[in-house]
Amino acid sequence: MITLNANWKALIAIGVLLLVAAVYTGYRLMEKPTPPVETGGTPGIEFVETTLIGRKGGEKQWEIVSKSVLQQEDVVIIGDMETITIFQGDRPQLDVRAQQGLWERKENTLTLRSSVEVRDVDGEFWLKSDELIHTEHDSTLTSPGPVEMLWNGMEIRAGRMVYAAEAGLLHLLDGVTIADGNMEFGVKEAVYDFEREILDFYGQIVLETKAGVGNGED
Length: 218
Fold this sequence. Notes:
Layout: H1 6-30, E1 45-47, E2 50-56, E3 59-72, E4 75-88, E5 91-97, E6 100-104, E7 109-120, E8 125-135, E9 140-143, E10 147-151, E11 154-158, E12 160-164, E13 169-180, E14 183-193, E15 198-202, E16 204-208, E17 213-217
Antiparallel strand pairs: 1-3, 2-3, 3-4, 4-5, 4-6, 5-7, 6-7, 7-8, 8-9, 8-10, 9-12, 10-11, 11-13, 12-13, 13-14, 14-15, 14-16, 16-17
């Protein structure tokens, strides 16, 4: 019979432990990783109670205070907007209401959709559109589709609208019609000047009244 002293017994025990550890490590390395769990949610970073600001050359162009913001790479989806302000220079110029917002950060383009309403900060006019697009490179706010506008008791409709923030001019274009009491007329273009608070008409004026139809030039 072979008798082992205490030192040999200790060496054998350590060897067995090392062998077991090596086998376990090899098994773990060969095991396939567990696939990630799909949550079904929309990927991105979500913010709550956020203020978003669009700038051009350090100058503020627009500001949005929102309770729901989801960022997906270069696209920011905005919901539950409390305030939307469009600036002219360093002054707030327009207050906007909309249900949905989409900010494409790379192009710095802001799109507002769904029941969009616009008022100037002095309450001089009200404008309604289905969609407004603010572009950074030319500092414009555009409605590519029909708009309705109320100003000084007149109801104005147009096929599209372009607000040039740097010039402070709002252009109403394509099939412009103006209704003022019992009188209605059509023009090529109407331009509202925020500085002068005047609405100018351009092109041939086609006037319609209860008494008949007339033509005029501005």
